[in-house]
Amino acid sequence: MDSNDLKIFRAVAAEGNITKAAQTLGYVQSNVTARVQHLETEFGVPLFYRQRGMVLTAEGEKLLPYAEQILHLFEEAAKVMNKSSEPSGRLAIGSTHLTYSINIPEIFSEYHKKYPEVNLSLITAKTEDLITRILNFQLDGAFVKASVLEEKNFISELVYKEKLVLIASPEINDLQQLYKLPFLLNSVGCVNREMLMRYFNSQGIRDLTYIEFNSLDASINGVISGLGAAFVPEASIIRYEKAGLLRSFSVPEEYSLVYTYFIRNKNGVVTSAFSEFVRMIKESNDVNFIREDKI
Questions:
Q1: Average pLDDT for residues 17-42, to the nearest whole number?
Q2: Domain shared by 206 and 245, yes or no
Q3: Do 145 and 260 touch, CB atoms closer than 8 A?
Q4: So where does this one cross the membrane (predicted)?
Q5: Over the chain, what is the mean pLDDT?
Q6: Three-class SS string for the chain?
Q7: How many domains are contained in the chain?
Q8: CATH number, domain with residue 43
Q9: 253 and 266 housed in the same domain
Q10: Domain range for residue 281?
C-alpha cells in the first residue's frame, strides 16, 4: 500500500463512482479500478459495494478516516519542506450558507488575483459537517456559526458577533401579529433556528407554522413579498428596512446573539497561504471581529 492507493480510495469514496474519480484525479479508469482492487486484496476485505456506483462497506468506512489522516500528513510534510514563503498549493475553506457578514466571494476574488498559484476552494455545509471536516483535515479553515463553540481539537482564529432580529412586512405593528405568521427558517440544525426556538419556548409560544428556506436572501425576499416572518442577521436587512420594505423587531440578547468563528485544526500546519487568507479577512472593511488570535 502506498499513499497513491489511499488517494485513489479517497477519491472513489468521495465521488461514489470509478469514472468520476478517474476524471478528478486525471487517471485512466482501469488504473483506478486496479488500485482499488489491490487495496482490497491487501486488506483482505471488500471496501466498496459495487451496485449503482461505489458505496463504502463497513470496512471501507473504517479505513476512510485513517486514509484522510495519512494523506493529510503527507500534504503537511510537503508544505513544511516547501521553503518558499509565497503562498501556493491547496487552500480549502468551508462556510455555512448563512455567513452573511463576511463577504467571502469578495475576499476569494481578491485572494485569487493576488495569489493565483494557490488552489483555492470553497465548500458550503452545515456547521456540524464543517467541524467534522476540520477535525478530519479535509479543510484548512472554516467559518461556522454557533451561540457557543467549545472544542479542544481546533482553534478559533477569529470570532465575529452578530445580532439576529425578527422581520416581517411593514404592515405588522407588533410581535403578537408577527407570531401569527408562517416563519421562513433554515432546516433543523441551523443556529438561527435553534436560537429562535429557545426564544419561543421562553415566551410559551406554540403551534407555529414553518416554511424551510435554506437561503438568507430567499428568506428576506419571502418576507418582503408578504409570505411570512423570519429571524435573520440585523446587518442583512438594514437597507431594506430603510427603504420601508420590511420591519424588524428585537428580542433579548440571550436569544439573539450568535457568533461566526473562523476555525482550524490545532494540529494542522499554518501555511503562508492560510496566514495570508486570515490577514485579508482581518483587513476587510465589512468585518469587525471581536477577537483576533495570533497564529
A1: 91
A2: yes
A3: yes
A4: none
A5: 85
A6: CCHHHHHHHHHHHHHCCHHHHHHHHCCCHHHHHHHHHHHHHHHCCCCEECCCCCEECHHHHHHHHHHHHHHHHHHHHHHHHCCCCCCCEEEEEEECCCCCCCCHHHHHHHHHHHCCCEEEEEEECCHHHHHHHHHCCCCCEEEEEECCCCCCCEEEEEEEEEEEEEEECCCCCCHHHHCCCCEEECCCCCHHHHHHHHHHHHHCCCCCCEEECCCHHHHHHHHHCCCCEEEEEHHHCHHHHHCCCCEEECCCHHHHEEEEEEEEECCCCCCHHHHHHHHHHHHCCCCCCCEECCC
A7: 3
A8: 1.10.10.10
A9: no
A10: 89-157+259-292
How confident is the model over 153-166, as pLDDT tens digits? 888 888 888 899 99
Q: How far apart are CA 181 and CA 197, in angstroms?
A: 15
Instruction: Give the separation between CA 136 and CA 65, rounded to whole angstroms.
Output: 7
**Number of alpha carbons in the 13 Å side-chain half-sphere of residue 148:** 3
At residue 198, what is the residue type?
A: R
Place of cell 510534510: 77
Q: What is the pLDDT of residues 75-113, one digit of tens each?
A: 767 666 665 567 888 899 999 876 655 778 888 899 999
Q: Is the pLDDT of residue 285 over 70?
A: no
pTM of the model: 0.64
CB of 234 within 8 A of CB of 246? no
Per-position b or e across 248-265, b if 16+ CB within 10 A of its CB: beebeeebbebbbbbbbb
pLDDT digit string (tens) for 203-215? 888 888 888 887 7
Specify the residue for cell string 415566551. Answer: 203
In this predicted model, what pLDDT tens digit does every residue of 249-270 receive, in sequence order?
Answer: 999 999 998 888 899 998 887 8
